[in-house]
From TrEMBL:
This is Metalloendopeptidase. Keywords: Disulfide bond, Hydrolase, Metal-binding, Metalloprotease, Protease, Signal, Zinc. Residues 83-281 form the Peptidase M12A domain. Binds 1 zinc ion per subunit. Zn(2+) binds at H181, H185, H191. The gene is LOC115061486. GO terms for molecular function: metalloendopeptidase activity; zinc ion binding. Its EC number is 3.4.24.-. The lineage of its organism: Eukaryota, Metazoa, Chordata, Craniata, Vertebrata. Residues 1-20 form the signal peptide. It comes from the Eukaryota. It holds the Pfam family Astacin. It is an enzyme of class 3 (hydrolase). InterPro entries: MetalloPept_cat_dom_sf, Peptidase_M12A, Peptidase_Metallo, ZnMP_hatching_enz. GO terms for biological process: proteolysis.
Length: 284
């Protein structure tokens, strides 16, 4: 009986070893590839490893701004016609209704199929289930989101007034987390690493950033809503965003190994920030 157990032990040991080896090898290969490739998105072998912002930048890689628009930080649209939207005095917030909810009317392009609609609506629900923001199909409202499968995943910042396009390309942007990310832009949020206080929490590795994308790492004069910096925000760039040669462009501090970003949807702190910005829970 003892010899059977020993044999089983050896067999299991071999199995474990056989299992471990290819994993180690493939990691080595992956790292080699990272260094060789210039565009960071090429090295993302497995989409499951990508966070929401990586996914967005991958889709938007060849994005050319439609006439009259420009993009900053990779996916925030700005119109030349309207003055640069900086949302002074929260002028770009969606209005709060007397019942305490903030209704964001939307129309969905008929080009989306059922699965697309479910994905987009899941992104809405992930926000509305934890906040006082409710996305409602537009009936007569003058200001609303016009959600279309244009090229790329992008949104304007805050409410611009009137019809405002929010692009969720299909299939590239068809993740509920990506949809929620763009909805948070439409609610008035910039990227987490653009916060005015970000230098306390991350190091921007300027030498690793593609020269033409340096501007995407500018800090913004943000209202940080007395909430802590959130590495797991759905609004955070990935570690390799706009990398020139595969090296990291954002390193958390003091612990460089803290995971950044995520792909599921808004974090608890993201929802908290929406609740603070829109004064949820306090009927006016
Ligand atoms: Zn964004």
């Amino acid at each position: 009986m003892n010899s059977t157990m020993i044999l089983m032990g050896i067999f299991l040991g071999l199995l474990t070893q056989a299992y471990a080896l290819p994993v180690k090898n493939s990691t080595g290969l992956f790292e080699g590839k990272v260094r060789l490739k210039r565009k960071y998105s090429d090295e993302m072998l497995d989409r499951d490893e990508m966070n929401v912002m990586d996914q967005i930048l991958e889709v938007n890689r060849r994005l050319r701004a439609p006439r009259g628009l420009t993009f900053r930080e990779g996916d925030i649209a700005t119109s030349f016609v309207r003055s640069a939207i900086t949302c002074p005095d929260n002028a770009c917030l969606w209005p709060k209704s007397v019942d305490g909810f903030v209704y964001v009317p939307y129309i969905l392009s008929p080009l989306y199929d059922d699965m697309d609609r479910i994905t987009i609506e899941t992104g809405m629900q992930d926000i509305s289930s934890g906040t006082c923001v409710k996305f409602i199909p537009r009936t007569h409202e003058g200001s609303f989101l016009d959600i279309q499968p244009r090229y790329g995943c992008w949104s304007f910042l805050g409410q611009t007034g009137g019809s405002q396009t929010l692009s969720l390309q299909t299939p590239g942007c068809m993740w509920s987390g990506v949809a929620a990310h763009e909805f948070m832009h439409a609610l008035g949020f910039v990227h987490e690493q653009s916060r005015s206080d970000r230098d306390h929490y991350v190091t921007i590795v300027w030498k690793n950033i593609m020269a033409e994308h340096i501007h995407n790492f500018r800090k913004q004069a943000t209202n940080n809503l007395n909430s802590p910096y959130d590495y797991s925000s759905v609004m955070h760039y990935g570690r390799y965003a706009f990398s020139e040669d595969g090296g990291p462009t954002i390193i958390p501090k003091p612990d460089p190994y803290i995971p950044i970003g995520q792909r599921d949807g808004p974090s608890a702190l993201d929802l908290h920030k929406i609740n603070v910005l829109y004064n949820c829970g306090a009927n006016e």
